[in-house]
UniProtKB/TrEMBL annotation:
Residues 76-92 have a biased composition (Acidic residues). PROSITE patterns: ANK_REP_REGION, ANK_REPEAT. Residues 155-196 form a coiled coil. This is Uncharacterized protein. It comes from the Eukaryota. Gene3D superfamilies: Ankyrin repeat-containing domain. InterPro entries: Ank_Repeat/CDKN_Inhibitor (IPR050776), Ankyrin_rpt (IPR002110), Ankyrin_rpt-contain_sf (IPR036770).
Length: 244
């Protein structure tokens, strides 16, 4: 829609001078090439390398695109295929050689770099020892000292808290002993009260029993007792028995 409405230029180039047709031909997008032809794209535009879309298709062996763009016949296509295969084979051998050579160079550079690192590490260790002998403190030493100070501070706080808990425990134990003594005293008081109550109850029961026995002796089932006036001579006898 953007191309049809003229919003986007179908022949617009990138920084290398290639158009959409160049990119589609190089990647073998034959459907896009057909659509560009239908939309009136210019297939004669050259990029910075002086190549048309057809030239790009031939360079990347995109034979269908090259044939569609009219840049090769059937015979030329076969020759192009054979030539491209030979070129690919030669190019493949060259690529392998370059890859092996590059790997050797990389391995050599890696070995030299490792030797340099080991040498620098050795020199660094020597420099650290000299610095420490001169009274200097490295960053790891400062960090270790900070950790030691933090641990000592934490230990002091825990010891203070432990001492406080010990004093608190001793105070609670003293209060517990006091409560135990008070409980013992109260239990003794309760026992004494229970004992006194039992004694009084026993004495009351004994007194009641004696009173009942005395009352029983003063009566007889065969007669009736009446109260009369008592003279001085008869003071020893309070009641006179009357025989029914």
């Amino acid at each position: 829609m953007l191309v049809e409405n003229g919003v986007v230029n179908i022949n617009e180039r990138d920084d290398k001078g290639s158009t959409l047709a160049h990119k589609a031909a190089g990647q073998g997008h034959i459907n896009i090439i057909q659509w560009l032809l239908e939309m009136g794209a210019n297939m004669n535009i050259t990029n910075q390398a002086g190549e048309t879309p057809c030239d790009v298709a031939r360079r990347f062996s995109q034979l269908a695109c090259a044939k569609l763009l009219g840049g090769t016949s059937s015979d030329e296509a076969e020759e192009l295929v054979v030539g491209s295969e030979d070129e690919e084979e030669e190019e493949g051998d060259g690529v392998k050689k370059r890859a092996r050579k590059s790997k050797k160079l990389q391995d050599g550079a890696k070995g030299r770099a490792k030797m340099k690192v080991e040498e620098y590490e050795r020199l660094l260790e020597v420099a650290k020892k000299n610095y420490i002998q001169l009274g200097g403190l490295l960053e790891e030493d400062r960090k270790r000292l900070r950790e030691i100070r933090d641990k000592d501070h934490t230990i002091n706080e825990l010891e203070s808290q432990l001492e406080y808990e010990k004093l608190r425990r001793e105070k609670l134990e003293a209060q517990l002993d006091q409560y135990k003594r008070e409980i013992g005293y109260l239990n003794a008081q309760i026992e004494n009260m229970q004992l006194n109550y039992s004694t009084e109850e026993s004495e009351t029961q004994v007194a009641r029993s004696k009173k009942k026995r005395l009352k029983k002796k003063s009566y007889d089932d065969s007669g009736v007792y009446i109260k009369r006036n008592v003279t001085v001579s008869e003071r020893g006898t309070k009641y006179k028995k009357i025989i029914a």
